[in-house]
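Researcher: We're teaching a course module on how sequence relates to structure. For the next exercise, students receive a sequence and then see the predicted structure as tokens, so they can try to spot secondary structure elements on their own. Here is the exercise chain.
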Amino acid sequence: MSRAWKLSESQRAHIATLRLALGLVTGIAVFNGWGWYTAPKDLTIHVPPDLRSGSTRPWWEIPPESVYAYAFYIFQQMNSWPSDGEKNYSDNIARLANFITPSCKIYLEGDEALKRNAGELRKRVRNVAEIPGSGYGDDPTRRVQVLGNSEWTVMLDVVANEYLGGEKVKTALTRYPLHVVRADVDPEKNPWGLLWDCYSGQPQRIEAGAETQVRGKP
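Model: And here is the predicted structure for the students to work with:
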């Protein structure tokens, strides 16, 4: 009788151990499942455009060349009017709202209103491009000024051509000091993690290699 009792107790202890192990494994599985479910589905890594040479940097660091590419792309998209400036400019502001700061959006809306009231948008077609030989590779340290871990000034040298009724009415070569900041934004709406914050200073008109101060903002 004593032997049977001892065997029964041993079996109970073994079952309790198995239950404890099963509970522990279940807990680990649930924890791993929760970690997998909450892990980010996408990770943005900024890779230098020239991969002929190696590059080692922290994954969270945004290199200057990526900041320049972002600034030029957003600026070009904002200031291109493919059919009618009176419609395209306001559409661009709304379409690119996730790529600019709220204060810059307010400034651009005011600029659009001033140009519209002055008759500078109606039926105007505009295209914007880099001045040849004035891209990022021309002088990287001057093109992107690092103001901090999350703030930059990007110097863009661009040419803007405007047309009215198929006839060119304006050509302007201008240097724009764009202010760009890092922001914690929805990656589905802005995968760059950057925002254009309008200008760090007054744009300058470029004429025959000389620069003159432009009155007012563009």
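Model: If you want an answer key for the exercise: The longest helix spans residues 2-38. The mean pLDDT is 83.
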